[in-house]
Amino acid sequence: MAYRAVMRWQPAEPVCAECGFDWGSSRQMAIDLVAAGPDAAARALAGVVDPMRHTGGRWSASMYVWHLVDVLRIGTERLLTLTHDPASAIACWDENDLARDRHYHRLSPVVGLIAFRSAARDWVTAALAAPTGVQVRHPEFGMLGAVEVIRRNAHEVDHHLWDIHRAQHSGPGHQDSHLA
């Protein structure tokens, strides 16, 4: 199967050069990665001295957790749209606007992990139920099916777990197994 770039933040290559996410991952592998995300985030945050402090990255470790909560909540809505009302389009959103409006920098990392776990459970349920032969219109990317939404959300989880690990290790090139 040929590699085809679909999403705005998807790298130009079949594997993300930063986090190592494989855009050719099976649907189930991507779902499993998201399901493991909350435990991996909890382990990673345990190694961060001050999860609310910026450590050279764009956001703090806590802000990345809250971003993942919103990614999965919006992803769940998109998957539910595919399942229940595919004739309805899905909307674009801007992660920086959402972070500012929700005041990620003030939100508790402890509560973030609880919300991440809840969002991941709901997302997994929606991902497993999403039909394979149905598509929904996205204003920028055209028609998207469940596998594109699932892989996009799985990449977000994998990539931002990598970002959280960077908060606990020196150097931006550190890439240990963040799902281990």
Verbal overview:
It is a single chain. The protein is mainly alpha-helical. The chain has one domain: dinb family like domain (Four Helix Bundle (Hemerythrin (Met), subunit A)), CATH 1.20.120.450. Helix content is 53%, strand content 4%. It contains 5 helices and 2 strands, in the order ααααββα. It has helices at residues 27-46, 61-84, 95-102, 109-129, 146-168, and strands at 135-138, 142-145. The radius of gyration is 16 Å and the shape is globular. The model is unreliable at 1-8 and 170-180 (pLDDT under 50).
List the helices and strands and how they pair.
Layout: H1 27-46, H2 61-84, H3 95-102, H4 109-129, E1 135-138, E2 142-145, H5 146-168
Antiparallel strand pairs: 1-2
Helix pairs in contact: 1-4, 1-5, 2-4, 2-5
Keywords summarizing the entry:
two-stranded antiparallel sheet; 180 residues; 2 strands; mainly alpha; Four Helix Bundle (Hemerythrin (Met), subunit A); disordered C terminus
